[in-house]
Amino acid sequence: MKRKTISLLTQVAIVATLLSGCGSANPDTAQTEAPTEKVTETEASKEAEPAAETTQETAEPITITYANFNASGGNEATLDSMYQAFHEQNPDITVEIETIAMDDYFTTLQTRIAGGTAPDCFEMNIENFAAYASKGILAELSEADTSSLNQTALSAFSYGGKQYALPENFSTVILVYNKDLFDQAGIDYPTSSWTREDVDKAAEAIRALGDNIYGIYQPVTYNEFYKVAAQYGGSLISEDGSKFTINSPENIAALQSMVDRVQKTNVQPTAEQMGGMGDWDLFESGRLGMIPTGIWCFNTFTEACDFAWDICVEPGQTQKATHFFANALVVNNDASDAAKVAAQKWISFLSSSDEAAKIRLDAGWDLPALSDMNALSSYLEITPPDNRKAVFESLDSLVLPPIITDYSQMSDIISNAVSKAASGESSPEEALNEAQKLCEEQITLQ
Fold first, then answer.
1. Residue 14 lies in a domain
2. What is the per-residue pLDDT across 233-255, written as a single tens digit (0 to 9) for each?
3. CA-to-CA distance for 208 and 333, rounded, in angstroms?
4. Residue 117: CB partners within 8 Å, gap ≥ 6?
5. Per the domain annotation, does 12 fall within a domain?
6. Residue 227 belongs to a domain
7. DSSP 3-state assignment of 278?
8. How far is residue 318 CA from its own chain's centroid?
9. Phi, psi of 162 (to 5 degrees)
10. CA-CA distance, 223 to 216, in Å (whole number)?
11. Global pTM?
12. C-beta neighbour count of 175 within 10 angstroms
């Protein structure tokens, strides 16, 4: 399905509207596997103080600290290029960058905040943003120049009518497939009209190519589950937000389909069959037919894969549903006034400067949250993948996790249930029945 570039760029504007909708109710999206942490009360719980005006000159050279997770796994050099461009314009500001793996990031961050050693500025995902803002941990960015940012995306990172973060980027998930394995199996490449049933048929054909060749890898985890549940027409909470619907027939069918790929048809490898190998590693080895993953894989796969590959919109079942991710940049409310000035200059550069946007796009990392949609047109010209327009087409089918006060507790309960189903300890129905019961007992919906 071909569309003119302007149509694709218009879809980017549409996603910002969706962002603003979730932003009004403690915004949230899925990260690849985006953990959420309960934020404890600390001295940072005082009322947030506005960061000093960015027009104020730094009185003397200063070094600030910046922590992030999004550059881990292949984009550290890209982030360093952004810093070099920033430092050339701001020679008096040195930024010590620490990149922490996503699995450890929020645990590490919370420990440092509690101990009074948090970085001066840091990256924040939308899942955790409201919790940190509500505790007074983040400085208000009332003086930030946000004119070049998409204003509706910007509003997703406001809390209580105040701006506490600048949107940094957005990305989504697509289905990546190995064209060579499809050719060997004699089957057609995936299209936007495919369903999960089509994916399963293709996965079985590819699995038949050899004992160590697999059709698909989609981790049986909470984040993947709520997305697949949406693909089956299910949800975790009723539309009016009054009750949990974790063990609905649609959700049970969704989890069963995920588990069956491992336990029944084995088109997806077990943990033992993976032998400690990561899902990206398996794909890069040429032994995996398909993998739903984020668009941040493009640069890594381009360098690591010696076979032809492409992408398409992730197939659904009764409907399509695609993960959407957005990260933001924040300033520590406990940082010194001088550090706040420098930190705000740094995060403003990362989020809205032409230089940072070009570096981000040229690297094929993710997409900047700019108001000038024409600036994103160059993204479509980068290959592979050839079908890069599928990134924008995916924006038609976004799914977000439910945003509730006790989101972390809910996700932990459901994650545990999904893990039991994945291991075979419980059937999908038993696991989701248990999660339904625990959530009803322990969480009060507003």
1. no
2. 999 999 999 999 999 999 999 99
3. 57
4. none
5. no
6. yes
7. coil
8. 24
9. -120, 150
10. 17
11. 0.73
12. 23
